[in-house]
Structures are given as C-alpha cells and as structure tokens.
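Researcher: Here's a chain I'd like modeled. Treat it as a single chain, no partners, no ligands.
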Amino acid sequence: MMNRERRCRLEQSGARIESLIWIPGATASDVLPGGLKDAISEDLYENNEQVLSKVPGLAHILTSNESPDFEEVAEILCDVDGFLAQIAAPIPTKFYEGGGFSYSWGYYQTKWVHADNLDELTALAEEFGKDVVERARANELADAA
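Model: Modeled as a single isolated chain. Structure tokens:
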C-alpha cells in the first residue's frame, strides 16, 4: 500500500497516529528514548491486550503492581521488530439520521498497539476508529432507550 492510500484510509476512518516508535531503532542504544519510557510507565498499562499478545514477555512486567524495570523491558524489546504506536480517534458527540455524526478532536480516545509494518498499523487504526464510533453510537442508543 502506498503512503497516500494509507493516509486516505486513516482520514476516512477518522483515526490518526499520535506516537510512533520503531522498536529496533528505539532499543539500539543503552538508553531508551523518553517517549518509549513514557509509554512503558504510563500508557501500556491500559488497553494493552493487543501489545501484550504480540510481544511475549511484556505481560508479566507490565501487569505487576511494581513500576517496570526499563532495562528488563528493553531486553525483551531488543528481540522485537515492528512498531509501537499510539493510535487515536475522536469520540462522536452527536449522531444524525442517515448515519452521520459530529465530533471534535478535543474529545478523543487513544490506544497503544504493536504492528509489524505500516500496512498492519493502518488496518489497526482503521479498526480502532470504527470501534470508537460504534461504541459511541451504542451508548447513545442505550441512553435514548
């Protein structure tokens, strides 16, 4: 898939890539980049089932009650290829007849994923964007009932 097609698919899904970490590049040094450290210590604890399933060994470290040991995480990630990415999608605030909806990027949801390549990342972001809309639509229907 070409870059223009990826971008078009992301635009159509309403999703975007907030952060992108190429794992081999981020672990090529003895010191992990700040963005990866932040992801490990703050963000990967929530909504991380997909990452944990694709990166064996992280589950034990990231699900314990203790703060993660960055050296231990780096050791695991040294054997992992691909990307860690934080994807984002706006949460619809109002739905209209015919399926349309309004939203603002001031109210959005994020999720970290692992992708082997940019095509997989695009597909994951598209799926996430659609899921956010479907959940918001279901919530609105439940509230109206």
